[in-house]
Amino acid sequence: MDMALGHMANERLMTPGPTQLPEQSRLAMARQVRHHRTEGFRRLFGEVVEGLKYVFQTQNDVLILTSSGTGAMEAAVASVVPRGGKAIVLESGKFSERWRLICEAFGVCVVKHTVPWGEAFAPDDVARLLADHPDAQAVYTTLSESSTGVAHDIEGIARVVRQTPSLMICDAISGAGAIECRTDAWGIDVLVVGAQKALMGPPGLAFVAVSPKAWAKIESIDRRAFYFDLLAYRRAMAESEPPYTPAIPLVAALAESLRQIRAEGIERIWSRTGLLARATRAGVVALGMKLAAARPADSLTAAFFPEGIDGKEFLRRLEARFGVKLASGQGLWKGKILRIAHFGKIDELDILSTLAAMELTLAEMGQPVKLGAAVAAASQVLVSAASE
Ligand SMILES: *Cc1c(COP(=O)(O)O)cnc(C)c1O
Fold first, then answer.
1. What is the residue with the minimal CA distance to atom 5 of ligand 1?
2. Beta-bridge partner residues of 210
């Protein structure tokens, strides 16, 4: 509660996960729990699987796990690369680092390739790595690196990986449902996504889309997981069921969110998210902040705090006074950057009001901002798009 104002501001979650849910999705969770080995649940589950296939643009099997996104990442290591097998990890941020840590935890021999935080991987470098390591069984990549705000060229990287026996594995947890992600057309063998980002689902569900090339590999290796053994999910999926008790209310909520996504259309969502991203970037730059990503993702904006501003205090004030919750930096960039999401339910007015709140807060902290400049810059982007 903000003491000066004596009231509790409405919470406005502008973080790159979790995100706020549509009303229908929230109401779905209030319904009585139904049993999962029933015709009704099978129908709902089947609908969710089809909705996910649409969002991921894939005909591959889509498996639903009861876990956060990291559980699906773990499944994409434990079920896919055997102990002692070699994998290339493209690491440049907190989440791609997680790929390496999971691989190491499962005894995978990691070839780590890095670029500085904020930069993007070049497909040519991946081609060279694969030529140097023809025995690499998988390449672990990230579509939208949520810790740096970078969008990696997954289409270009997949084009290279596709020509080798290696599997193309992509963490699209904050990307899928926000920015272009064409699993089949690009050739992503294992796509990993979580519910609580652009899919507008409650936290607690994760998804893995598996290509025939990846299944062949999965079938051939020693199993190193039980709960996260992807073969168990595929067997149950044949009956349109999960192998174990699913998070039934969360599945019901996600079904509602996916209906909304389908109604709008995934390509329209990609372009709307792109517009919000351009408006946000213009506003943030007008506030005197420097964008963190050389190749910014349209799913979230990461920017360095202005010189002389205590970032932690800035975020605290923003939340206390306006209820606006932004994400701070992680790892190397802890305390240095803020991160604003523009996916899911977030709309133009959310972006404009967030920028206005940021501007006011910076002014109150003594920063020489020109009031209205950030909103004007963002509005200009929106106006130009509307008149195109
Ligand atoms: C949020 C996120 C994760 C982690 O997901 P959890 O649901 O917190 O386990 C992994 N990768 C990326 C890119 C993310 O944005």
1. 69
2. 61, 190
269 forms beta bridges with: none
The response to whether residue 171 sits with its C-beta less than 6 Å from ligand 1 reads yes
**Type and span of the H or E element at 21:** none
Contact 140 CB / ligand 1 (< 6 Å)? no
Within the chain, residue ranges assigned H as helices are 23-28, 39-56, 69-78, 94-105, 123-132, 154-161, 183-186, 212-220, 230-237, 248-264, 266-286, 311-322, 348-364, 373-386
* Residue 68 CB less than 6 A away from ligand 1: yes
Residue range 139-160, pLDDT digits in tens:
999 999 999 999 999 999 999 9
- C-beta 299 within 6 A of ligand 1: no
Which residues are registered as beta bridge partners of 192?
171, 208
Distance in angstroms (rounded) separating the CA atoms of residues 112 and 151: 19
Burial class (CB in 10 A: 0-12, 13-18, 19+), 164: middle
**Tokens linked to 382:** 């929106």
* Residue to probe by mutation, ligand 1, list 91, 174, 208, most atoms within 8 Å of CB: 174
**149 Cβ closer than 6 Å to some ligand 1 atom:** no
Judge if the beta carbon of residue 174 lies within 6 A of ligand 1: yes
Q: Whose CA is nearest to atom 15 of ligand 1?
A: 174
Phi/psi for 282 (5° steps) reads -65, -40
Strand 327-328 to strand 337-341: parallel, antiparallel, or no bridges (unpaired)? antiparallel
On whether the pTM is more than 0.85, the answer is yes
Q: Over the stretch 200-257, which tens digit does the pLDDT of each residue have?
A: 999 999 999 999 999 999 999 988 899 999 999 999 988 889 999 999 999 999 999 9
Q: Is the minimum distance from the CB of 142 to ligand 1 under 6 angstroms?
A: yes
